[in-house]
Amino acid sequence: MGLMGYLTGRFAKRIGPEHRQFVAMTGSVLDTGQATCPRCRRGHLKPDPDTLDMRVCDNPKCGVRLALAEIGRALAVSGTDFKALAAHERRQAMLLFLAAEVSCILAAAWAVYSGSWMTLFGAVMLGIVLCANAMLARYRAWQLENGRMFEARAPIGAFLAAELGRGKRQGR
């Protein structure tokens, strides 16, 4: 009986089905779900390990290979309003930031009132997840506004420069 066997036996007694469901739900919420395949509508487009600018459908019946440029052209031809999508992402980011702030403030007050610092720790963890999702929404909005949606490598450096530069411009 190794360490893993011991830990599995100990945690099996303490972790019930409701905890397993919570872990499964958390994994699905925090999953970085890929785009749905435009051809079969059942599979998801996964990165091709051989080339950075190709996506492959994970449905074995479909298996279509699409270049990022093709996906971008298909989205542009479909008449998608990028400004409306960017505005929606910015609103969502603001709501997520506000939710993070409110949850942390309320949890801090509750932690002081009840004397439970684990409440504060849990709220900070929730706030971190909400802030990370808000930053992703801001990144998506920036990508849509600047036409940098479908690139082989994520332009995170340019996004950070634009975000930090925007703060300096507003402060003038």
Structure description:
- With 172 residues, the protein is mainly alpha-helical.
- The chain has two domains: 47 residues, no CATH class; 92 residues.
- Helices cover 66% and strands 6% of the residues.
- Strands 1-2-3 form a three-stranded antiparallel β-sheet.
- A hairpin with a 6-residue loop joins strand 1 and strand 2.
- The chain is extended and about 55 Å long.
- The relative contact order is 0.08.
- About 5% of the residues have low confidence.
What class, by secondary structure content?
mainly alpha
Which whole number gives the mean pLDDT? 75
Largest sheet: 3 strands, antiparallel
Count of the domains: 2
**How many individual helices?**
6
Share of helix, binned: 55-70%
Oligomer category: single chain
Order of helices and strands: HHEEEHHHH
User: Which strands sit side by side, in order, in the main sheet?
Assistant: 1-2-3
Low-confidence stretches: 25-32
Fraction in beta strands: 5-15%
Per the principal axes of the C-alpha atoms, what is the gross shape? extended
* Radius of gyration from the alpha-carbon trace, in angstroms: 21 Å
Report the span from N to C terminus: 65 Å
Number of strands: 3
